[in-house]
Write a structure and sequence with these properties.
CATH class of the largest domain: Alpha Beta
CATH architecture of the largest domain: Alpha-Beta Complex
Shape: flat
Low-confidence stretches: 1-57, 402-413, 436-441
Radius of gyration: 24 Å
Distance between the termini: 58 Å
Length: about 450
Amino acid sequence: MDEPSGQDVRRHGTRLAKGLGRALLAALAVGIVFLAGNLSSSLGGLDAARIVGLGEKARVASAPSADDEVVAAQLGERLKEAADLLDSDALYRYTQGDLDTATTEAIRALIETGDDGYAHYYTPEEYEAYLHVSKGEYSGIGIVLTSTDEGLMVLQVYEGSPAADAGVLAGDLLLAIDGDRRDWELREATEAISRPLGEEVGILWSRDGEERESVLVLGEVNVPTVVSHLIEHEGRAVGYIHLRRFNAQSASELAAALRALGDEGARSYLLDLRGNPGGYLEQAIEVTSLFVSEGAVVQIEDRAGTAVEEVDGNAVTDKPLVLLVNQGSASASELVAAALRDHGRATIVGESTYGKGTVQHIRKLSWGGALKYTIAHYKSPHGTPLDGIGVEPDLPVPASAGPGSIELGDNIAGADYRYREGVDVQLDAALAALGAPSGEG
């Protein structure tokens, strides 16, 4: 972020003003979340990975010893002393822009000097966007992009989105944005498309060697948390459900999908958590509760000790269940996988999961920003640690990388998806793991 322009004395004063972080102490609780992994989605108005603080795999170091521990408030006292001197003696005063810039840089510097790899400061604008993400609300053009050898390819187009209305289809390649034609990186393209609601963006697409341009107006995009459909496979009716994330609606949408598929004749279920980066802790507990009638879901270790969270007793089904996971399954996804394994409730198929066994808390700050920081480690119901380890599948199946294969694990199939054997080897293996027809189960 650029420093305010001006004379050297003013720049020096601005750097000192980064200490105006005393407002860190005034905060309101918002929610407990799990977040990890890389989110390769582009909705045209939001870089979701940046907003929710996802990125390189982080690790949280062990807490310092009691003899060496220093409370953050001591830093605040030192910075307050410096700020008081500037207010009383310095020639140059601050504008609101100086204060906002100094606040952001000071808090992020404070975080970077600590050992919490998942801590993050959200500016007021980023926090507002995060709240929309957590509710499943987005603005953009309504596509999911993925990187391929050919360039950026549309993996999915959301129903009713500007892109869908313009005839954009999965498989289209993105060639240029607003006339800028080059080999776009995923993050670059996301940022280039990102702009305020109602503004236009011109994109050049390629489909089967033919190029065409669309001028899209960014709008509200409804991204479903759950995608589900019935798969008829070797005489079996399998209820397939892909849970994309653990937001505020995840458990209720999943419960509705389970009931609807059951009414359609599903005799077993396949829950796909591939590419699911996590989300709310309470939603992970409620999701587990849909399949387990009693017992523990997770052990949570924080400063106060260890607490055990149990299911809510509102199980929806006891039919056979297979869980699909991969390296993009993180946090809340891993909690659910570990709990279902400990209860002997599901067979886990796919790849080793991400390995994030920590819980973060997000608190809103008095000026509209928010601070995310680690408050606990969690373990499976049997006490198995997951941080840095992950969950190993019962049936290891690497993702297919052959010609014509589709990397569905990143963001699998829309509502119009129909199963085809041989396209997704992990899905094939999961269906095989459900076995022959066996009644209601």
